[in-house]
Amino acid sequence: MWLDDEFNGVVFGDKRLVKRFKQIMQEFMKKAQSNIASTFDSWSSIKGCYRFFSNDKVESQIILDAHIDSTISRISEETNQVFVIHDTTYIDYKNRKKTLDLDCITRNLQSKNIAKGLILHNSFAVNDLGVPLGIVGQNYTERKEIIEAPKKTKKHLIHNKPVEEKESYRWVEAIKGFLKLDNVTQGEIVHIADREGDFYELYRECCEHEAKFLIRASQNRAINKTKRRESPKDKIFDYFRSLKPEATITTEIQINKEKKHRKAKLCIAFKKFTLPPPPNRTANKDGKKLYNMDLYGVIILEKKPPKNHEPLEWLLITNIPVTNTQEAIEKMRWYSLRWNVETFHKILKSGCSIEDAQLRSKKNLIKYITTKSVIAWRIFWLSRISRIDLNHNCNTVLTKIQQDVLFKRFNKGKINTEPISVKQALNWIGKLGGYIGRNSDAPPGIITIWKGWTRLMNMVDDYTIICG
Ligand SMILES: [Mn+2]
Asked: 389-467 maps to which CATH number?
């Protein structure tokens, strides 16, 4: 069973707890969208699940580390390029008034009420085909207050700065955490972050450890300083916008979360540049030297967007040499894989309903979120295995009994003699979830796979009860 492989390394100092953990995972997998109370049939199992999460021997880090180990072995088996995508998600627990140690996530502008919850930063590994390999790091940011919306005075901005800096440090922590992992060929991984990751310390951390990165620029920062005392001569956005395009490509771009696409004609240019340390910072608080870094920029610019459409503009910063158009286009394609982390967060929140958790303390909530994170990864993986190898048998995806039930359901009760292929299994699971599956249809999407998966799990349950 996949759970045995995935959590091979899990040790809570009590064998019964490991057994219990796997039982809980199995139930969570069947009813990903339910909260604890509606996942289990009996009061004793519900109580048992609560007791599990409040047991001090059960630590979220133990669960996460076991999953990370399994993720690393998936990474090491990859022949394709592997990416680690970093991003933050806000988990809303505003209705949980009794949980005291939560963090501030938003402030309502009118009522001034502060919503409480957790700030979760994920590092998520995917391969070149967008197949999710697993989580490689999770950390939570503490935020005990939200500073009054700044009136735009300079004084206020200065006052705010340390807090912002402290919080953005989570990006550096995430990279540091990953660099500590063994059995990973660090130099082959590419770290991806959105505009929030655009800051000097993060670039420096990566360069210092020869970790490759691809990050979208946000600040119009000063670049290209040649002498130490000289002030930088260019502004990054102005500089890259003024470059002569090296190539023009026409492609489909995704324009919003609803997966709407439109055609776009994009100009691509790239150039090496030097990034000087931020001004007004001579010595660094961690005692590390500040220096100029040689980096590469790739700009992807839509010069003539259709009416009423925002032009697409990506300025990507990387320490991977970009010397020709092909490499520049490759960076654009890589960056578009960043979307996968958003999908993962969506599955975690709306698919695995982590915001409906009914646990009392922050510590226990985190254990629950860690557990559900693995479930979310597994569901996501399941929806993407069609990208791996369609003709492979699905023994790694479905157990024997799951295959039997699925086969019977679509073959008038007949019994299968050979393992079903991944393609066939996905098609049938999709059909259970409402997929029509005409020849011209795209493969079933995540939501459909998931509905189908849940139905299959329930069918297997009934089958085992009835047929023993
Ligand atoms: Mn983000």
From this structure: 1.10.740.10
